[in-house]
Sequence to fold (115 residues):
Amino acid sequence: QVQLVESGGGLVQPGGSLSLSCLASGFTVGNYAMTWYRQVPGKERVLVAGMTQFTGRTTYADSVKDRFTISRDNARNAATLQMNSLKPEDTAVYYCNRNPLPLPWGQGTQVTVSS
Fold:
């Protein structure tokens, strides 16, 4: 079955760190561009980070630049999102996907940044 499963979210204090994983099955992440999105209730899902297929070039939303890092873990066939210096406004459900041929959105993983 071709799918992506996100994990690694949780409750963290402001300034803390979390590492999210996006485990792929049914395809190889190295053959696709990978992306991370986030969504808060009542708002649209927004792109926070992306990595291209061939060169591995990364792009980030201005709001997370220099704090978040997207990468691939080819051994685990996964994409990861390392999040540092977390802020309350980073609170959201985080989703991953691929390009081309994006998959139906999974359940995501909840990240809550609060003291």
Remarks:
- The radius of gyration is 13 Å.
- Residues 29 and 77 are 6 Å apart (CA to CA).
- The mean pLDDT is 96.
- DSSP finds no helices and ten strands in the chain.
